[in-house]
Amino acid sequence: MPENEGEPWEYSLCIPNDPRAVTISRRTLRLILTMHGLIRLVDVAELLATELVSNAVRHTKGPAALRVRWSGGVLRIGAWDADPEPPEPPGSFAQLEAGEGGRGLALVRACADLWGWQPQARNGSRGKYVWCELAAA
Prior knowledge:
5-stranded antiparallel sheet, 4 helices, globular
């Protein structure tokens, strides 16, 4: 086990409403996990972060933020955006294969151990925080 894997940590990345923010967020997440010795989580974590951040950028007009937290052997990845409306419920894979709706939260639901959302204000802006968790084991 890497030396610091047991110590909790958290990173936040404020991102503009710009499609390039998705790639920047994904690459930043890869660097964070690599530096913390969690390379085995990178592929799934990148997929999850890409879906969460792209939803935040695509479906809102304001700023957004990526949050990554490690605590107790669990990685939490979340995206905050300035739209307080709940996210659309994830569709089924049958709906996705038929071309109905986006794949975002359906992939998050399928790949994460746990996911959810909550209303959350940030820097005076009302919004929501959509998150998911991956256990290291």
